[in-house]
Amino acid sequence: MSLTLMRAAAVFIWVIYRVLGEPSSTASAAEEQPPSKIAVIGAGISGSAAAYYLRQQFGLDVQIDVYEKSAVGGRLATITVNNQQYESGGATIHSLHLHMQDFVKELGLKHRRNIAGKTAVFNGEQLILEETDWYLLDLFRLWYRYGISCLRLQMWLEEIMEKFMRIYKYQAHGYAFTTVEELLHSLGGDRFINMTRRSVAESLLELGVSQRFVDEVIAAVMRTSCGQSVSMPAFAGAMSLAGAQSNLWAVEGGNKLICSNLLKLARTNLVEARVTSVSLHGSENKALYQVKYEQDKEQGLSFYDIVVIAAPLHQGMTNVSFENFEPPIKDFPGQYHHTITSVIHGYLNSSYFGFDDPKLFPFASILTTDLPNLFFNSIENICPVNISDGFRRKQPQEAAIWKVFSQEPLIKHELKTLFRSYYSVQVTDWAAYPHYDASVTVPSVVLHDNLYYVNGIEWAASSMEMAAVAAKNVALLSYNRWFQYLDMIDQKDLMHKVKTEL
């Protein structure tokens, strides 16, 4: 018998066993058994975190297969210039992102040494806001130009983040949610739900933030963080604004190390293959899912008790088809916004920003306002992922590594506008964030009995930490649903329940 026929026979016998069960088994006993196999589709931060939390919930006896068609890390990636690696994907993490902090501690990774640099805002003609070495002078300039808008923004963000932090208590106690709306409502009530339906500009103007501040500062942050405008929903905007604050960090060696190390810690089986379909099979009591995949130009399949989709499904991003589901799993509305990342080794043309002498140019990063004549969103002098003790940021008159975000690939004329000369240009087209639209419905976490979708949370807000929150929610939800701990799912008034338990 050939190896292919032997594999087919083994799969057939295993399916028959799972569907029919042992003759002496009872339905109640089957419900008490843990799952045998779990599939996670995608090995970015969502998938690697999901695998880690699934292992925590279900223990060591469960086989966890993680499918990845390209590189582990997904949108956490690096690019090599002159034998040094630089972040080309997700680059920074907020100090309040506790899951990411826990990952670094658990994995024995280190925070990258921070190299300070000043920032300015450019409107296409001149720098309208410049950071200095004097904190009090910066505060005075902000107050003089924008009044108390900065204070109102800070108070708004602190209130939102304080409520968002509740998720860590809920998850520590094992609570989970079947929809993103249920999760958001448990944190901030109707206000958080409404924030997904109103623009960040509308919300801030209602608070008394000035139009000028919205047009110049908020717009610049939105363009840099997710390539979009102040018309994006307020909740996603608030998460982006929180992620633009000064208390940020990154992982020494590259943020993608979190993903690869989580998969190792979780003792997963990494399958380097492209999943083509997930189809429903099974018995009356438990669903069984067939995962088909392509690996080295050959077709393969395997069966699982639980399947977790940890890759974007919108607009054919993953190209996974769903078969034999009734009702059918419908296509997801909405599309992902593309951001062009250009990593350029060259000499900055500081005169474009009003500094004829490059030695006098003091800024490490330039943000831009939302004007049609601006062909780039931001430009930043970036540091490698491994920073030695003697490392210093390149001076403006020296050739440095710059990262430029733009809506379209930079043409030669635009490169010559930004740089006096350059040695190399490496371009990555990232489908980095959803194209935020308040009319797009946030997809459910549960696609079928034991089929879950992690990345739907991106349509509320997108960051490494949001992915980790969603991953832990799916792990808790799948565990609670498998063992029928229904009192741990979609509970109301959780703050009161958690205080009572404490």
Largest sheet: 7 strands, mixed
Instruction: Give the count of helical stretches.
Output: 15
Helix/strand class: alpha/beta
What are the segments in which pLDDT stays under 50 over at least 5 consecutive residues? Answer: 1-30
Fraction of residues in β-strands: 15-25%
Distance separating the two termini = 61 Å
Mean pLDDT: 89
- Give the beta-strand count: 21
Helical amount: 25-40%
Record the strand order, biggest sheet. Answer: 7-6-16-17-18-15-19
Shape annotation: globular
What Rg is obtained from the alpha carbons, in whole angstroms? 24 Å
What do you see in this structure?
This protein has 502 residues and is α/β, with parallel strands linked by helices. The protein has helices at 3-20, 27-32, 45-58, 98-107, 135-146, 149-164, 166-172, 180-195, 200-207, 211-226, 234-242, 257-265, 412-418, 464-482, 494-501, and strands spanning 37-41, 63-67, 78-81, 84-87, 93-94, 118-122, 127-130, 248-249, 269-271, 274-282, 287-295, 298-304, 306-309, 321-323, 336-348, 363-368, 378-381, 400-406, 419-434, 446-448, 451-453. The strands form 5 sheets. It has a 7-stranded mixed β-sheet. Helix 3 (45-58) runs parallel beside helix 12 (257-265), helix 4 crosses helix 12 and helix 9 packs across helix 11. Mean pLDDT is 89; it is low at 1-30.
